Amino acid sequence: ETGVTQSPTHLIKTRGQQVTLRCSSQSGHNTVSWYQQALGQGPQFIFQYYREEENGRGNFPPRFSGLQFPNYSSELNVNALELDDSALYLCASTPGVGDTEAFFGQGTRLTVV
Amino acid sequence: GQQLNQSPQSMFIQEGEDVSMNCTSSSIFNTWLWYKQDPGEGPVLLIALYKAGELTSNGRLTAQFGITRKDSFLNISASIPSDVGIYFCAGRVGSARQLTFGSGTQLTVLP
């Protein structure tokens, strides 16, 4: 186990709704990144949070937003859900913003119908 | 953006055989990582490589950071049934925040 926990594990939402996914980083890790993994593909970077601020963003629209809390846990929010948002959402933590070895949680499987 | 070309896309091997997979890129990477992902789980870090030419082992797994810094390979020796899964390469370019992932190699080990 990596010590990174995500909730919920599975979620079904309707197109147009909003969703919040949660992540608790590994103890001592202050940097959290979120990835989207579509079926049959590798994870794609959404954004990273460090010291409660967004610290880098991939090619995702503004309806994907996030938060990081003082205890380093994080949330991913997606508004106006689209069918193509159906994917496994992965949270990864690293000890520090400059560290490379990212440790992933088990992911949240989001299905948009 | 950067892209990683991972091959092969899938492999079917007999238990006990050795396996090799690789990733190439048109960009120079500062770090190469290899992950394994089981169904319904997140990727698990297997090996991390930080210097061109570096060769690192983790049990039956061996990975190398290519000297051009544009490629990496992963070898698995004497495969066993629990090696089944999807293997991903991932790399970091310069000071980029994110990891760029390959498309994965689906490994099936036949008894």
Question: How does this structure look, described?
Answer:
The complex is a heterodimer of chains A (113) and B (111). By secondary structure, chain A is mainly β. Chain A contains no helices and eleven strands. Chain A has strands at residues 5-7, 10-13, 19-24, 31-37, 44-50, 53-57, 64-68, 74-78, 87-94, 103-104, 108-112. In chain A, strands 2, 4, 5, 6, 9, 10 and 11 form a seven-stranded mixed beta sheet that branches. A four-stranded antiparallel beta sheet of chain A has the order 1-3-8-7, with no helix packed on it. In chain A, a hairpin with a 5-residue loop joins strand 7 and strand 8. With 111 residues, chain B is mostly beta strands. Chain B is globular. The N and C termini of chain B lie far apart (40 Å). The mean pLDDT of chain B is 94. The interface between A and B is medium-sized, with 28 and 26 residues.
Q: Oligomeric state of the chains?
A: heterodimer
Number of strands of chain A: 11
Determine the mean pLDDT of chain A: 93
H and E order of chain B: EEEEEEEEEEE
The biggest beta sheet of chain A reads:
7 strands, mixed
Can you write the helix and strand succession of chain A as a string? EEEEEEEEEEE
- Share in β-strands of chain A: over 45%
Could you estimate the helical fraction of the residues of chain A in percent? under 10%
Beta-strand portion of chain B reads over 45%
Radius of gyration of chain B, taken over Cα atoms and rounded to an integer in Å: 13 Å
State the end-to-end CA separation of chain A. Answer: 31 Å
Note the total helix count of chain B: 0
